Amino acid sequence: MRRIHYSWFILVITFFSIIVAGIVRSSSGVLIVPLEEAFGWDRSLISIAFAMNLLLYGISGPFMAALLEEIGLKKMMVLAMTTLLIGVFLTLFMKEPWQLMIIWGVIIGLGSGLFLTILSPYVANHWFEKRRGLAVGILTASTATGQLILLPLLAMIIDAYSWKWAIGFILILSFIMVVIILLFMKNSPKDVGLLPYGLDKESPVKELVQRKNPILIAFRTLFEAVKVKEFWLLAGSFFICGLSTSGLIGTHFISYCIGFGFTAVTAASMLSFMGIFDLIGTTLSGWLSDRFDNRWLLFWYYSLRGASLVFLPFALNDGSITLLIIFSVFYGLDWIATVPPTVNISRQIFGIEKSVVVYGWIFAAHQLGSAVAAGGAGIIYNLFTSYTWAFVLAGMFCLLASLFVMVIKKQEIKVDVSQTYKA
Fold it and tell me: Cβ-count burial of 392 within 10 angstroms (0-12 exposed, 13-18 middle, 19+ buried)?
């Protein structure tokens, strides 16, 4: 045990924290139809509430990154998980659409912000000197791991009992996670008398911590970032990333499958099946991002994702479970694989200290795309009584994202890196 660096324990705690936060947010995928049936609410209205959730937790990312430097990692994780706990608890008592908007759009949206935006790169940057790409890959994969383990279980609970029983189960998990964070989480390696994993001696540069208003830090960093072309390219590609993942697949995939005669449990199982391969794909992506040109990794990730989304309507229309499994494997390998290369490029361009806040803004674009897809797909469904156009358009946008990332020139990144460190 003495050989295991405490950074790996922090990685495990963070991993399971993100799993719980991820299952709270992604449970929206199995709640749309039950809420529609229980309250008689319009599907587009429910979709808008979940779209607000996606947008708010994305926009909160850069502010969460700035607050981390002021409040500390442990307190922020406790505060965020407690917020999720409160939101899940209040869900049991909601009766009106405006309550859904406040609870899921605002409270759970804010509670998810820390865990599902900048926590992964923050922990990787501050607790790891070596294996950063691998650490980001593992932590990013944890959002899908929650779906892998729990979404089919939630669907079965809803099918056997009711959606309130599923909410109660999530409530218990959230409470357990609050206790674990309180007992074992640490703010930094210094709290346990260590240096980050792989660092032999302390660097005096890392001691320069900005002690200013977190809101000013977030906006000042944004004003600096928007002057850099690569920021817009990364933000644009990540907008499409969000549009084609959590906003579309995470919110509407189960409902889409139900429309073709598949059961909710089968659809949730396919979503969890994606989670198995996302865990593999994203972890592998982290390993690859430490070794290969991150631009080319992103090019292939977006291209293959686009192809898989265009393929999905044909698989569902055929009614073949085999084709649906093929889609789940193919799409799952690529679900969140884009995160480690995007984090790496951001760190290379903006430096280790600013990159977490910059990535927070890039992820805000991701969640803006998620919100557009979550709300837009609901509107498309109301217009055409089908999600097909939403999925085909998302696939076409992915091909556009693959072109965005190739505009980033490798030599330009090197220039920006030198300028960043010189400053």
Answer: middle
Distances (CA, A) of 384 to 245, 317, 369, 388, 390: 21, 15, 21, 9, 10
Task: Point out the residues of the chain with pLDDT beneath 70.
Answer: 1-2, 146-148, 202-214, 409-423
Q: How far apart are CA 231 and CA 224, in angstroms?
A: 10
pLDDT tens digit sequence for 3-31: 788 889 999 999 999 999 988 987 887 88
Token pair belonging to 220:
């000042």
**Beta-carbon contacts of residue 112 (< 8 Å; ≥ 6 apart):** 21, 24, 25, 53, 57, 80, 84
Between helix 119-127 and helix 73-91 the angle, nearest 10°, is: 160
Calpha distance 386→361 (Å, rounded): 33
The neighbouring-strand residues paired with 128 are 197
| Residue where the block lists tokens 């947008």 | 55
Strand ranges for 133-279 from DSSP E: none
Which amino acid appears at position 122 of this protein? Answer: Y
3-state secondary structure of 227: coil
**Residue pointed to by tokens 């899908």:** 144
